[in-house]
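Annex B, item 7. Sequence and structure tokens for protein A, then protein B.
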Amino acid sequence: MARRQTTARRYAEAAFQIGREERTLDTWERDLGVLRQALAIPELRKVLEHPALAYARKEALLRRVLPSVSDGPMNLALLMVRRGRPGALDPMVDRFEELLRRERGVVLAEVRSARALDDELREQVAQRLRALTGDDVEIIEVVDESLIGGMAVRIGDQLYDASVRSRLQRLRARLTA
């Protein structure tokens, strides 16, 4: 798993550098997103990961399934398949998106709440997080009923936990101490 992450990181950083130099980061973002969607199809992923199938067949299939993907992202995907690393494609796209967010001054915040956020609350949370980080914020919402109420926000390696569950756990710890 660590090797897959290292491989994915190297490929993503190379793709990002190429996109930055050629001023085609938006194209790379779009095409890597299309590639990720295609790889979500189990049959296609199985074919690309099958060691007994010839590379030429895999290349022909990928080019036929994804005719709109530009040369750079397609060649990167084919290189990874040729080198026996199709499993690193998803983490590579994740790392590319992370680099792109950093370039654009956007942080990723995972917001866990007991219920889905309505539009007004989502905007309030986004504004609060923008003030806290000084950056634009991209929110990923996760509904976690075990929180009971409130929310927990993770930005990078920082956790802001204002959930009822954590308050009850702290109260229990104080009472038993």
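Protein B:
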Amino acid sequence: MVKSQLATAPPQNQILARLPKADYERLMPLLHLIPLDFKQILNEQRSRIDFVYFPSRGVVSAVTLMKNGGSIEVATIGNEGMVGLPAFLDPAESANRMIVQVGGEALRMEASLLRAETARAGALRRLLVRYHSAFSFQISQAVACNGLHTVQRRCCRWVLMTHDRALADEFPLTHEFLSHMLGVRRVSVTDVLKPLQDAGLISNRRGQITVLDRKGLEAASCECYKAVTDEFERVFGKSEG
């Protein structure tokens, strides 16, 4: 059983932080702060969504699974967003496996309560519609990126997006996990990371990755990192935290 506690103010999640104060205070009794553990699965692909999560810290990956056992990440979620977005739609079913990539914590809410709240057509519904637009853009950009750009540039994009959401320069990263995120064989990961380490952009040891040169990573990344960042800023404005 997951240990939880009631939400407190102010929220660290950027969607909740954008709510009018009265709206957030009304939601607080419905929100429970829970830990997000590395590799924890919040939803399986094609499973019913019983809870939604508003991350405060940590990173969650939306992963598409194939019948042959292959997988690839199609989106990343941190404190800018919400896990379980289809819950206010019908049917409330997860299109992807939602797995914790970097541990942290989130405010969890029952999906049925979210649907009741968004039926009010108030501020939360408007924010989630805007987030849905930005999140859909991220997924469509990932499709293009995974098909058109080199693994090394995609790796830089992945590290940058994780760095933004982890809120720390160091975060856990195993070769096995990165191979699943990038859709490549595990033996290929060393060949991908070594040039980035040799260039002084990152350090990777003992299952941890450290960002050493943020600007260098941005220069080495494909255009998709900036495209997704720009789209979120277009929809929501500059990040507030």
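Comment on protein B: The chain has a mean pLDDT of 90.
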